[in-house]
Amino acid sequence: YNEYKSYLRSMSKILLCGDGNGGHVFTALATQNCNVQVNVLSLYEPVRTKWQAALRDGAILEVLREEKDISETYKGNPAMVTDDAKAAADGAKILVFMNPAFTHDAYLNALEPYVTESMVIIALPSQPGFDFAIRKAWGDKASLVDVVVFDTLPWACKMSEIGKNARIYGTKDSMYGGISAKSKAKPHVTAALELVQRCLGQTPELRVTRPKLGALMSTLGLQIHPGIMYGQWGKWDGKPIDEVPRFYYDATVDGATYCERVSEEVLGLGKKITELFPDVDLSSMVSLKDWYLNTYGPEIGDKTSLYTILRSNAPYASFKHFVKEVDGKYVPDFNVRYLTQDIPYGMIPVRGIAEIAGFPTPMMDEIIYWAQRCIGKEYLVDGKLTGKDIPETSSPQACGITKIQDIVYA
Fold first, then answer.
1. Integer CA distances (angstroms), 349 to 94, 232, 262, 274, 378, in order
2. How far is CA 322 from CA 7, 231, 325, 337, in A?
3. Which of 258, 346, 358, 379 is disulfide-compatible with 387, CB 3.0–4.6 A?
4. For 279-286, which contacts have Cβ atoms below 8 Å and span 24 or more sequence positions?
């Protein structure tokens, strides 16, 4: 207990990898709720320079939270916004990753020289290949750090003006995290999680109840976004449309079905792994429908099925599909993170685990074949992850991992 308290007192700096919507919200909440120093590592020059300019001009970042019966404003600036990984990491024992998966490699490579023992990485959220990416970037140094992964971003939020304003539209009641048994027993990991909880406030409640592998495989992006996209545009005839469909509230029956089938395959893979390794407990993995009910219960208007849940979950009512305008009408834009991120860093890693475990995933395969055509990539060839673009993914195949035990017991 005394060791835990000592760690908590020493954690006065947080290194934040993330300068987008979530990064803005986290910065304001952390500085106001906990009075901690937040060092923002930003490797994206357009955002970095604008945020730095806002700081020089004396702007104070304000985050408006308006949801349910809550109307609150949080204010607070980072101590620095920099692309200097050494400066950002100096004295920081907690690394919060709140950046897109396609940027993880760049951040991990930049930080590699400054990795020290007892650092704690908290991914809000992670992607299924996050562990593989850490191992690929840090090699033996990966064993020095403890990693806690969560399945989603804490809020539905949007940055209005870089370094100045952001807004929270919805806050999750709880978030389910994963951690290895070895890391869970360490006092400094407990202290890091408590500090991040205080930064976020009472909600969402961080519940670290799952083995890390189960949490990584259950990441929501791969189960939701590609299926909804495939349901909306998989049979598109190529003709421009008159109105932009809402992403969730106009979800199709097919789209909801695809999401459910992907969820079933993820759960089936978890069951397969526990059959191969009876000492591995993945019983905390839940279906996509149950995740929605556990996370958004009071916000959902119709809980009958996943289809009705997607179309009545209040915080996401206004989200629309990404499109491009053509002569006053619209065509889908496939160069968006729901495909360019959630496929190579979400679905492909889980599909890669399934391939090594010998577990079939026909729904994932169907979506991957369609998605890779849409984004001009090649991952899946003749039912195997041997495409020319596999090295760009965070799959076990990209890391040279061929044995299931090297995944399960990592």
1. 26, 24, 13, 18, 14
2. 44, 14, 10, 10
3. 379
4. 280/211, 280/213, 280/408, 281/211, 282/210, 282/211, 282/213, 282/214, 284/176, 284/209, 284/210, 284/211, 284/214, 285/210, 285/214, 285/217, 285/218, 286/218
- Looking at the DSSP bridge assignments, the partners of residue 148 are 122
Q: Rounded distance, CA 118 to CA 107, Å?
A: 19
Q: Helix %, strand %, coil % for the chain, to 5?
A: 45, 20, 35
Burial string for 109-121 (b: 16+ CB within 10 Å, else e) reads: ebbeeebeeebbb
Identify the three-state secondary structure at position 309.
helix
Enter the pTM of the model.
Answer: 0.84
Q: Indicate the average pLDDT of the chain.
A: 94
- 346 DSSP 8-state letter: I
Q: Is 65 helix (H, G, I), strand (E, B) or coil?
A: strand
How far is residue 291's CA from residue 61's CA, in Å, rounded to a whole number?
Answer: 32
Rounded to whole angstroms, the Cα distance separating 91 from 86 reads 10
Structure token pair of residue 328: 């006053």
pLDDT over 70 for what percent of the chain? 98
Residues taking part in catalysis: 225
Given a contact cutoff of 8 angstroms between Cβ atoms, the answer to whether 303 and 309 are in contact is yes
- Which pLDDT does position 229 carry in this prediction? 98
**Residue 5 CB coordination number (10 Å):** 11
- Reported as half-sphere exposure (CB side, CA atoms, 13 A), residue 244 has a value of 15
- Judged by phi (left if over 0) then psi (alpha if -120 to 50, else beta), residue 359 lies in beta
pLDDT class of 69 with cuts at 50, 70, 90: confident
Query: CB–CB of 131/216 below 8 Å?
Result: yes
Of 338, 346, 341, the C-alpha closest to 395 is: 346
240, two tokens: 């421009």
